[in-house]
Structures are given as C-alpha cells and as structure tokens.
Amino acid sequence: MSIKEIMEQEQEYIMDTYDRLPVVFVRGQGTRLWDEGGSEYIDFTSGLGVLNVGHAHPRVVEAVKKQAEKLIHTSNLYYTEPQIELAEKLIKLSFEGKCFFANSGAEANEAAIKLARKYAKGFEIITAYNSFHGRTLATLAATGQPEKQKAFEPLPVGFKHVPFNDVEAMKKAVSAETCAIMLETIQGEGGVHVAETVYLKQVRKLCDETGLLLILDEVQTGIGRTGKFFSYEHYGIEPDMVTLAKSLGGGLPIGVLIAKTTVAENFEKGDHGTTFGGNPLVCTAALSVLKVLNEENLCEKAAEQGAYLMSKLNDLAEKDTLIKEVRGKGLMIGIELKEEVASKIVLACLEKGTVINKVSPSTLRLLPPLTVTTEEIDRMIETLSKMLE
Ligand SMILES: *Cc1c(COP(=O)(O)O)cnc(C)c1O
C-alpha cells in the first residue's frame, strides 16, 4: 500500500481519535526509525516515552522471542515465574511493598484509586491541574484538565483539583473525605512542568501528618527517564504508592502499581484483577528492560545526556527569539515557544528526519531513548534550530 492508500484506509476503518502525522514507520533500531520508503529518522519521542532502551534492543528481542516460543499467556488463575521475578526486582528498586500488574498506565492508576478507597475511610483524591492520569472514566476524572472531561460527564465523583506546586492550595483542599493525593513529579502531557523539591517534601509531610496516602504517577517519569530509576529519588521522599507503565515493557503493554505492604494488604482475593496483566511475555520483556538499564548504566546516561541536551537547548534559547523557556529533568524535556507554532515545527522536523512531539500548541517535548548519543543530540539541535528560524 502507498502512504496515500494507508491514510485513506485509516480514515475509513479507524475511529478518528488521533491526529496522526503523515508518516508510516516500518522498522526501528536504537534511536533510528525508517519509513516505508526507506528514509531514516532520528527518534526523539521514543513511542511516547516507551522505548527508553531504544528500538529493537537485541537483549529485549531475544528475551521476547524465547519466551514467545515457550509460553505467552496463562491468565492469573495460575502462578507464572516471570511475573514473580519481576515483582521482586521492582520491590528491590522501590520500597518494601507489593505489586499489582496491569496493562497500561491508566489501569495501573485505576488500581491505585481502588486500593486507596479500600484502604481509607474517605474516598476523595486530590490531584493537580494540568495533570494527566489516563483516559478511563476514573483516571479521566483524576486528570486535572476540564476540557478533556466535558464531553464525558457525568464522571466518577471523588476527585478534587488544585494548582500544581502550591502546597497551601493542597492543604486547603483536604477534607474529612480525603484519602489520597495523587501527583506526577513532572507533569508530562500537561506541558513538562517539574515539581519543586520543597513542594513534594511538604506534600509528603502533609500526608504524614493527616494520614493521607501519597500516590506518585511515574508512568512517564519512571524507568530512568529523568536520570534516576524513579524520579522521586531526586526529591528525597518516598510515596505510599507508585505507578509505572510506558517504558517498563520495552514496547510491550504493561503497567504496575507498587504499594507499601500495609496499604497493599487491603486488597483481598477478588477485589481486583485483569485477564492479561503481568503475563509471562510482557514480564519477560520487562525483566530484560531492567537488565539492559542496569548493564548499560542508562539512568546515569540519561542524567548526563539530559544535562548536555539541556545546555544545548539553553544555548539555542539565548540565540533564538522563538524559545521562551526550556524545562525538564534528565531526558524528559519541554520547550515552551513564544508562539503557537509547535505543530508546524513538529511537522517541519519530521520532514527533515527528526521525530519530536508537542504537548500543547506552544510546547514541544523531547523524550529520546536513554541510549541517545551526543552526536545524535547535536544532529537534532541542528535541525531544530533551522526549523525554529
Ligand atoms: C501516559 C500516561 C498515563 C496513561 O498511560 P496509558 O498507558 O496511556 O494508559 C498516565 N499517567 C501519566 C503520567 C502518563 O504519562
């Protein structure tokens, strides 16, 4: 099929929920992608923060191939080894607790919401404006973006939104019905806004003083993206629950809720479940991702390359009048422009073989694989600076 035919067929058979860019990708390797015509691209989006170890990492490919030949799925009626092995590894990386495996970020957050309600007397969860927690009805209700919610009302009740990085607003929002506070450490879809250290520390303190649960949504910031395995490690705090998804399976769909043991124990048999969650194939993929992250020191690399990329962007911001601000941590970076031209820039970069993404009409986002080299960063900066001109 030609690209034109593919686009026409898509219009006919796929629901119109995505504003896709005019490209058909057929192959990926590391930080590179190729389209159906054989043109090469450098990928600074990583499938929306999913391919932290890069496309087609040989260790991941090998592990998935082997496991697919052995056992893909059994359901959670039975014990399977990869799921238990993965849980043990994740607990060692986080805190004393237990895991629940789901298939996506939204589902991991749904599990957190259900567990918070089961654990506490109250039912209300406070989240931030501009947050993003998913597209299911409950996670959409948790998402602090009224324009995304409007068409789907009535939404599940029990969610209150407050301005991000404002601890006084958070304190005021707490009521007798509150059971938890749910935050991203860096708001990703909301425009790459970084939580201040003092803010998260004060929110942690507020939770300790009032007995509220702190849920951190690390679906996008986790798995080394910001230069630490969990981005909360930058803040010197620990949540009561944390969710991961995007990059955990190296491209295969998996999400997880990790909760402190005293919280986790409130889920009893039959309280929650999923058919696919944590099946042998996705858990084997995730185990290989953790191995690669460790062997290739990708958390440290994300911090180093992130600092380099940030300095290059700040140089550009000094010269270029179109850049208003550069924000982020590690390899999760937002570029705020002075004009609403993000879509144009994304398309122009794509035509020059550089894949970047936008999170608002005036904000670009960079999420390259953590394996990205300084050479590739230089190449991306060169294209971006030309397109900004
Ligand atoms: C992407 C994202 C989600 C939703 O994950 P899905 O896998 O698309 O359901 C939730 N929270 C955050 C912070 C995200 O970035």
Describe this structure in words.
This protein has helices at 3-13, 46-49, 58-70, 81-93, 105-119, 137-142, 146-149, 167-173, 197-210, 261-264, 280-295, 298-319, 342-351, 374-388, and strands at 25-29, 32-35, 40-43, 97-102, 124-128, 159-162, 178-183, 186-187, 193-194, 213-217, 241-244, 255-260, 323-329, 332-337, 354-355, 357-360, 363-366. By secondary structure, it is α/β, with parallel strands linked by helices. The strands form 4 sheets. The protein has a 7-stranded mixed β-sheet, with helices on both faces. It has a 4-stranded mixed β-sheet with strand order 1-2-3-15. A 4-stranded antiparallel β-sheet has the order 13-14-17-16, with helices on one face. A hairpin with a 2-residue loop joins β16 and β17 (363-366). The longest helix is centred in the C-terminal third of the chain and has 22 residues, at 298-319. The protein is globular and about 55 Å long. Residues 104-106, 109, 132-134, 184, 188-189, 217, 219-220, 245-246 line the site of pyridoxal-5'-phosphate.
Topology:
Elements: H1 3-13, E1 25-29, E2 32-35, E3 40-43, H2 46-49, H3 58-70, H4 81-93, E4 97-102, H5 105-119, E5 124-128, H6 137-142, H7 146-149, E6 159-162, H8 167-173, E7 178-183, E8 186-187, E9 193-194, H9 197-210, E10 213-217, E11 241-244, E12 255-260, H10 261-264, H11 280-295, H12 298-319, E13 323-329, E14 332-337, H13 342-351, E15 354-355, E16 357-360, E17 363-366, H14 374-388
Parallel strand pairs: 3-15, 5-6, 5-7, 7-10, 10-11
Antiparallel strand pairs: 1-2, 2-3, 4-12, 8-9, 11-12, 13-14, 14-17, 16-17
Pyridoxal-5'-phosphate (PLP) binds next to helix 5.
